[in-house]
Amino acid sequence: MQLSRRRFLSTVTAGAVGLGVGALVPAGTVQAVGSSELPPSLPPGTSLGTLLDYAVGTPDPKAVAAAGHAGVIRYVSDRRPGAEYMTGKPLLAAEAAAMRAAGLTVVSNYQFGKAETADWLGGYPAGLRHGRRGAALHTEAGGPAGAPIYVSIDDDPSFSQFVTRIAPYLLAWNSVIGPARVGVYGNAQTIQWASNAGLARWFWQHDWGTPKGYLHPAAHLHQIPGQRTVGGINVDVNTVLKADYGQWR
């Protein structure tokens, strides 16, 4: 399905009018927001280093550094009900300070719900609520005012879901933290849609629904499938694809 940016944003606006948020939608062009075609992939093996992300516990910064990783991507979000075992959520100021003192970088990410409780399913109202909470936790942990927050789309959504739920959700985040700070954690197609629509400026790719071996050229980070263990903690490993990937400065 192909949909022009103008028609796409008109659809999003129509869904937001009742919420009084139509003014948040930017002026459109005729780019094909809904195109299923992906641009050429980054070269295989592209990597400027690796970062860890984790939620079940927190590894010692010395273990992270000793394993050769450049830093961590951390949740600035609460534990959802039933996930009390995720003791690594949210990121706290002491952990962030310790990571940085060890010469490691820190990146902020937001995800509260998952699957049937995915944050983006709530559209614009959920985006406002989660955006405010994420911004507050980011600040409490010592996150710089200008640092981005990667917003999780931890799914393989359809274009219809993108238009009706995800785009309004991201628009709300834009209104809370500003367009320059909104990042998206999503598969290659979600990155393509969000990038074409101008709804995010930072991108972290996962491979659910992504063509095998494909790296979106707009992606700053890429999550490698499969978990590892660092310092006794289960972690995901991510490759850095660009020198500036939203790390705290």
UniProtKB/TrEMBL annotation:
Transmembrane segments: none annotated. InterPro entries: GH (IPR017853), Rv2525c-like_Glyco_Hydro-like (IPR015020), TAT_signal (IPR006311), TAT_signal_bac_arc (IPR019546). It comes from the Bacteria. This is DUF1906 domain-containing protein. NCBIfam families: TAT_signal_seq (TIGR01409). The lineage of its organism: Bacteria, Bacillati, Actinomycetota, Actinomycetes, Mycobacteriales. Residues 63-240 form the Rv2525c-like glycoside hydrolase-like domain. It comes from Gordonia alkaliphila.
